[in-house]
Design brief:
Radius of gyration: 19 Å
Number of domains: 2
Number of helices: 8
Helix content: 25-40%
CATH superfamily of the largest domain: NAD(P)-binding Rossmann-like Domain
CATH architecture of the largest domain: 3-Layer(aba) Sandwich
CATH topology of the largest domain: Rossmann fold
Distance between the termini: 31 Å
Number of strands: 10
Strand order of the largest sheet: 7-6-5-8-9-10
């Protein structure tokens, strides 16, 4: 690998930018592809996008040449807003699935080391916390508090970010009121549609653990499809 390519890969990782290293097999020539940042129908870029989505390298043919595509994704992250009962199994499942988990809740009685051992606990208000955490294309964001004072600032920050998943706990009635508040805040319908609400796949979940399973399943579906 050329030093310039290596230096750029290191810079991309520091910037949490998804990139694919494409190596032409016949002569080992290399180039970096940024499918999330480049609008194109080129087969190589489309294949690079699939490599990033699947987290699996592959060989593809383009213009008579075979290319080995190796993806370099930023780490998976999950930001949970609300140190409620559902957050405990959800955080555990996310960690098992390879996510770096941060939990936001200014209520320190809830966001405690005793309830969430070893987790990155952020006790600033959600708007400040989200600004510091800077969600990227490999970030899932879930709000669980049912309190607009906490959920809404986080959702607004999430909608301004490239996060691949945004979900919010609550009934259909609660979500309808949430949509109205997002519209009043200036978000259009396409942006608001990014919010999965009620959060999670419809599997009849009832207990906190079951709801966490439904949320984790929906996040995985969004990541991989």
């Amino acid at each position: 690998m050329k030093r310039a390519i290596l230096d750029q890969l290191i810079a991309d990782r520091a910037a949490k930018r998804a990139v694919v290293l494409a190596t032409r097999l016949r002569d080992d020539s290399e180039k970096l592809l940024y499918p999330h940042e480049t609008e194109s129908d080129m087969p190589l870029l489309k294949a690079a996008s699939e490599v990033l989505a699947s987290d699996k390298s592959r060989i593809v043919e383009d213009s008579g040449s075979e290319w080995f595509l190796n993806g370099f994704n930023p780490p998976l992250r999950m930001i949970i807003v609300g140190a409620v009962h559902i957050a405990q199994p959800l955080a555990s499942m996310a960690l098992l699935a390879g996510y770096d988990v941060s939990l936001i809740d200014p209520r320190t009685a809830f966001a405690s080391e005793a309830r969430f051992p070893g987790l990155n606990l952020v006790t600033e208000w959600p708007d400040e916390a989200m600004s510091a955490l800077t969600p990227d294309t490999r970030t899932a964001i879930v709000t669980l508090t049912h309190d607009p004072k906490l959920d809404d600032p986080a959702l607004m920050a999430a909608l301004r970010s490239p996060a691949f998943y945004i979900g919010s706990l609550g009934s259909r009635k609660t979500h309808g009121a949430r949509i109205d508040r997002m519209k009043a805040a200036g978000f259009d319908e396409a942006s608001i549609a990014r919010i999965h609400g009620p959060v999670g796949l419809a599997i009849g979940a009832r207990s906190p653990a079951e709801i966490a399973i439904s949320i984790m399943a929906q996040i995985t579906e969004s990541l991989r499809t």
